[in-house]
Automatic annotation (TrEMBL):
GO terms for cellular component: cytosol. It catalyses: AMP + H2O = D-ribose 5-phosphate + adenine. NCBIfam families: Rossman fold protein, TIGR00730 family. InterPro entries: LOG, LOG_fam. This is Cytokinin riboside 5'-monophosphate phosphoribohydrolase. SUPFAM superfamilies: MCP/YpsA-like (SSF102405). It comes from Rhodothermus profundi.
Length: 189
């Protein structure tokens, strides 16, 4: 069975083209590596670019979307190999979490950050040991990482972060591959 990578990313259509291109490149790499994509089920923004790219390159796409979002015309990626429709956002996140072997966080807004923070917190508390890779593409997450460093200096978070930061796509996939092929604890900080 192929590894399943949950990707959190933006649904915004108004982002710069470089972010959409990044999502397309991630889709290529997921498909080439034989990973199954688990994601929020959208056909817009980075979500849509990602899912379409995975399909174009022969990969499998599993979308998980709340019914209220699916009902909005053009939001859901109806061509997904499996499109799971949930009643709530909480149910959506739980299904994505349960199905995933690892998490990859791309640029995004409040929803992406909220999903990242949830799996990060669950890992810190020991509810899972699945790898989490934050792709700090073009310094997108620099300010967030500075804030996390501030939290560490003030002793609000542990010295060792329960996720890994990659600054480039190759690095992100190398971290995923290494973590999925070994049982070693993979968190750094």
């Amino acid at each position: 069975m192929p590894h399943r990578i949950c990707v959190y990313c933006a649904a915004s259509q108004r982002v710069a083209a470089r972010y959409l291109q990044l999502a397309e490149q991630v889709g290529v790499r997921l498909a080439q590596a034989g990973y199954e994509l688990i994601y929020g089920g959208g056909d817009v923004g980075l979500m849509g670019a990602l899912a379409r790219s995975v399909h174009r390159h022969g990969g499998r796409v599993v979308g998980v979307i709340p019914e209220a979002l699916q009902e909005r015309e053009g939001i859901a990626y109806e061509l997904a190999d499996a499109l799971i429709v949930t009643q709530t956002l909480q149910e959506r996140k739980a299904i994505m979490f349960t199905r995933a072997d690892a998490f990859l966080v791309l640029p995004g807004g409040f929803g992406t950050l909220e999903e990242f923070m949830e799996v990060l917190t669950l890992r810190q508390l020991g509810y899972h040991h699945k790898p989490i890779v934050l792709l700090n593409y073009d310094g997108f997450f620099d300010l967030l990482l500075q804030f996390f460093a501030h939290l560490r200096r003030q002793h609000f978070v542990p010295a060792r972060w329960p996720f890994t930061v990659a600054s480039a796509l190759d690095e992100a996939f190398a971290l995923l591959e290494r973590s999925l092929s070994s049982s070693a604890d993979f968190s750094t900080g």
